[in-house]
Amino acid sequence: MESLLIKGGVPLHGEVQISGAKNAVLPIMAATLLTAEPCVIRRVPNLSDVRFMGQILEWLGARVEFKGDEVHVQSAKIKGHADYEIVRKMRGSICIMGPLLARLRKTAVSLPGGCVIGARPINLHLKGLAALGARITIEKGYVQAVTRKLVGAPMFLGGRAGSTVLGTANVMMAASLAEGVTLIESAACEPEVVDLARFLNAMGARITGAGSPTITVTGVKALHGAEHEVIPDRIEAATFAIAAAATNGEVSLRGARPEHLHAVLDKLEEAGVDIQRRASSLIVRRKARLKPVDVTTLPYSGFPTDVQAQLMALLTLAPGISIITERIFESRFMHVSELARLGADIEIEGPSAIVKGGRRLSGAPVMASDLRASAALVIAGLAARGTTQVNRVYHLDRGYEDIDAKLRKLGARIQRIEE
Ligand code: EPU
To answer: How far is the CA of 33 from the centre of ligand 1 (A)?
Structure first.
């Protein structure tokens, strides 16, 4: 198993290119199942989750070819059955359900199960697909969905924690080939949903309102092949911005879209970080002493849960008390005990973490538990004195393209070792 060895205390300086967004490309790859024609997706990050999705599409019968940062997919003839072995590796695989149902009218997708950040139910996905006329049963670990024909319908997709990103994606994809008009209320507003809608519209779908809580999908008879360039990854951009601030450096994030990062940039500025917004880049620099801030994770355009762990790593360095409240996933504080190994003082009180910041961090071996927790540990390791060994790097490789190479280019002393 691989680990990252980080010798901390070096301010990051220079420019980093932001890759395509993992959470945009995964549903977009799934959407290629909606047509028998070839599709080309550009600015595809080289990530293990993207390769998993490629394997899932191949398993279903599609032809998938990665060429540099492009993926070419043609789903001429596909099957509608996805086994546990193929979907369990990645919880995001659930977004093949909507396209398979729409294309084949019958699908059986194994339930991917929970993960370390929480239970991850799919009741809202099922509610939406049922509203379109699917008969849904859960048997032997599979969600089976069948329909004679999907028919557009109004629906409310809000749940316990607000909207659902992949639930909205699943319904939008299925509704694109339904008869008549679908109105999704309390739809997810994330930029990744907007990017999927753009791709579907390029395939001939008729979707309006994506990016707002009300999405209208007017069904069409068939979709055709399309080409698409994926949006830059706002979570990767936020992670590098925080790493720059945590190390007292100055980093230019090339390709980052400030308009996708309002909540993150606002909090960073409140914490004493200087941000210069350019049309398609951001320059991040620590201005003064870090200040504590309070933050609550929310659906977009609120502060993203996918940046909660990284911000916590930064706030351990800010003298004073910061309160971080996690409202999206119930157990997304796995990084807390690992940050404590580096010397951070954090207490968990229900859905909140109380960070008593300002202590000096010192390097130690730590264990990554999930993707964003791993990113937080890398940031803490970059800021800590001494050497930090982040174990289980495969979590990071799911969602950060070449993270160690990119950090090295910014001056970090980081290397990948095989244990
Ligand atoms: N929820 C329900 N019922 C559902 C679906 C979701 O109650 O049917 C709840 C969830 O339990 C959670 C909330 O709704 O409390 C939001 O979950 P959502 O469905 O939006 O999450 P997701 O679509 O499964 C995507 C990202 C996650 C990201 C979340 C929230 C992908 C592949 N994954 O998951 O990304 O945290 O949205 O923004 O797009 C990551 O990249 O590290 C990651 C976990």
So the answer is: 22
